[in-house]
């Protein structure tokens, strides 16, 4: 069995009026893979084709070593026979059934021997155990969405497909539901394919990132490496920045907390999580500036040595994106073309980065 057999494989080609989809996805069989791209780039179409809701002639789709579609071999497993859960933007719950009956409905679809989760355990995982006797019309949008996710899980899927599951929620509800999605990620081994056009959501949740533009894959790879690419089209470069996975190592005497990553330490405002907690942070390219020698007169706390690996023009007039490595950890900085020229910033140049802002994502 080839290595990718354990993961998700989708080769899809489709022609519509004014839109052509041509993707070949090979995604890991665990963790959250985000499909990210502008409106109309084909994210939903990919999900629907993988689910079998949309029949794409000639396609090949396999999940966890099970072939769901291989037109060359005459295989097309109908959607109701595919072990998948699908969560849409708006939860479509049965209005006449309470939450428990809605969840039981998902569970009953699976033969007893193949059920992987207990109703109570899934309800607890999603924090809806106190809502089991309620009708959907007495739930908030965020609660409804958590019930929809629980119902999808109770069908014991091999793959969970989520199409902008937070898009219909306001900011507060989004913040309320994100920790539950992180729990799914931490506690289930099931792969999740997650469609979003929110960079914050992707940075917070994803392990693997697929960037789609006009029906094509622009980049696909581990989140950290993919976000650190400097050669992405302007749509993606505009909000450029990297994500670092860190561990809360301790607190400095002056009250700041120390976050250790593979190649150094960042200092941030005091964190109350337990020492040893894993925290993910985002560093925007616009928050990173460069100096040729170690600044001794800077108010910026996070100063780290780095080496330039590439410089790329952006669509922002007069600005360039600089790709660097702090040891093995990639970083992006956005500086002016003038500074690039005056400091002679080019690949191979060793310098110091000043990180003005570190956004804690989780
Ligand atoms: N049923 C359909 N029939 C014809 N064209 C469609 C259909 N559904 C979508 N399209 C077109 O296919 C293209 C891709 O649409 P898709 O919904 O996959 O994009 P998306 O990236 O999910 O967009 P959004 O972020 O706005 O949801 C668009 O040009 C869209 O107009």
TrEMBL record:
SUPFAM superfamilies: MOP-like, P-loop containing nucleoside triphosphate hydrolases. SMART domains: AAA. Residues 3-239 form the ABC transporter domain. PROSITE patterns: ABC_TRANSPORTER_1, ABC_TRANSPORTER_2, MOP. It comes from the Bacteria. Signal peptide: none annotated. Residues 297-362 form the Mop domain. Keywords: ATP-binding, Cell inner membrane, Cell membrane, Membrane, Molybdenum, Nucleotide-binding, Translocase, Transport. GO terms for molecular function: ATP binding. PANTHER family: ABC TRANSPORTER I FAMILY MEMBER 10, MOLYBDENUM IMPORT ATP-BINDING PROTEIN MODC 2. This is Molybdenum ABC transporter ATP-binding protein. It comes from Massilia norwichensis.
């Amino acid at each position: 069995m080839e290595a990718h057999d354990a993961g998700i494989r989708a080769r899809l080609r489709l022609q519509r009026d004014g839109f052509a989809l041509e993707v070949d996805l090979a995604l890991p069989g665990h963790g959250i893979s985000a499909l990210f791209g502008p409106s109309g780039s084909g994210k939903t179409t990919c999900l629907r084709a993988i689910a079998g809701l949309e029949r794409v002639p000639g396609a090949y789709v396999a999940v966890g070593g099970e072939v769901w579609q291989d037109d060359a071999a005459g295989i097309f497993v109908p959607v109701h026979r595919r072990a998948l859960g699908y969560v849409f933007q708006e939860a479509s719950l049965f209005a006449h059934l309470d939450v428990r009956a809605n969840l039981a409905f998902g569970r009953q679809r699976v033969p007893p021997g193949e059920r992987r989760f207990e109703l109570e355990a899934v309800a607890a995982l999603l924090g809806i155990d106190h809502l089991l006797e309620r009708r959907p019309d007495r739930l908030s949008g965020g609660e409804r969405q958590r019930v929809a996710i629980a119902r999808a899980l109770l069908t014991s899927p091999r793959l969970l497909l989520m199409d902008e599951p937070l898009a219909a929620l306001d900011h507060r509800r989004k913040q309320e539901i994100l920790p539950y999605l992180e729990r799914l990620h931490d506690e289930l081994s099931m792969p999740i394919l997650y469609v979003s056009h929110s960079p914050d959501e992707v940075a917070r949740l994803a392990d693997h990132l697929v960037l789609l533009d006009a029906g094509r894959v622009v980049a696909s790879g581990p989140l950290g490496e993919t976000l650190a690419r400097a050669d992405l089209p302007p749509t993606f470069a505009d909000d450029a920045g990297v994500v670092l996975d860190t561990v809360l190592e301790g607190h400095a005497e002056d009250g700041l907390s120390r976050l250790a990553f593979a190649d150094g330490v960042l200092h941030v405002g005091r964190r109350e999580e337990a020492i040893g907690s894993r925290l993910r942070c985002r560093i925007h390219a616009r928050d990173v500036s460069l100096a040729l020698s170690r600044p001794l007169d800077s108010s910026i706390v996070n100063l780290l040595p780095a080496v330039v690996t590439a410089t790329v023009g952006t669509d922002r007039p007069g600005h360039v994106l600089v790709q660097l490595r702090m040891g093995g950890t990639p970083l992006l900085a956005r500086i002016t073309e003038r500074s690039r020229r005056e400091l002679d910033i080019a690949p191979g140049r060793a310098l110091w980065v000043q990180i003005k802002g570190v956004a804690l994502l989780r």
